[in-house]
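Newbie here. four chains, one complex. Structure please?
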Amino acid sequence: MGDKFDCLKISNQLCFPLYACSKEIVKRYKPYLDPIDLTYTQYITMMVVWEEKEITVKALGDKLFLDSGTLTPVLKKLEQKGYVKRSRSKDDERNLIITLTDEGLELKKQACEIPAKMGKCVQLSPDESAKLYELLYKILGSFPEES
Amino acid sequence: MGDKFDCLKISNQLCFPLYACSKEIVKRYKPYLDPIDLTYTQYITMMVVWEEKEITVKALGDKLFLDSGTLTPVLKKLEQKGYVKRSRSKDDERNLIITLTDEGLELKKQACEIPAKMGKCVQLSPDESAKLYELLYKILGSFPEES
DNA sequence: GTTGATTAAATTGTACACAATCCAATTGTA
DNA sequence: TACAATTGGATTGTGTACAATTTAATCAAC
């Protein structure tokens, strides 16, 4: 028995719990990230650099769904902390190559325990987590390549 | 055949697709929110005000998972645009009451089409959407009342 | 080979988001 | 009734996010 405005109820939105849940979980990383002096954005950036060893800002942005306006200051901060090196590509001077430093690699060891600790914070069964993961990537995959 | 660092791969995180998906969908609201001159945060704030007609900043913050540091400027902006009124409660001067104005009510009519338009942007079946909604609220519900 | 388009980063401006702190109003308790 | 503790908002400072613009390098035609 709803009126035509029911669609505007906050409880009928799918985006809102997504938005709220994302923020709440990111907030819960803080106690684990503070000791290694990283923000969440810096953390996921380091995750990619740990995997790739060497990557352009463009490729990093594609993986993280972030543009240069966000990444430039984040990467400068990470360079300042000594975890990455920023240098132009010899092949194509337009590309900025991000490289992992020894300190950056060292940091990886300290970050190693974080995923397990955070896992306990999300009260879903393995099946539910898998389903959520699947649905989220289904949405992300449905968006056109170039945003 | 993974090593002990596999847990730090971006593709093994549950939070990351949540974070990315939230941002990507919020971004896709822009074309629909621009014509009525609202940002996403202003939009969800108005959603609650449309439902409640009158609500304190505290209650608004509880519903939206936002604190006064975020809401104060958002509400001042909405007041400036003429959609809400901000006034102290007579009962308890600490409480700031947010009230819907006539212009605010008028805006609701123009916002009415947005949820349907956005719905088409998320390529999930009704069942999948319902499941996603359920899982997200399960996570949100598992967090302690006071953050 | 010059010029027009494209591309990758950086920059600028606006708007969150939140921790931490501050302040005024209210409440609880001795 | 004093007065300490609590509460609701506001403020300040830092760090994203992203649109829009700019700049420099490269590419594509011709």
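Moderator note: The longest strand of chain B covers residues 84-88. DSSP finds seven helices and three strands in chain B. Thread marked as resolved.
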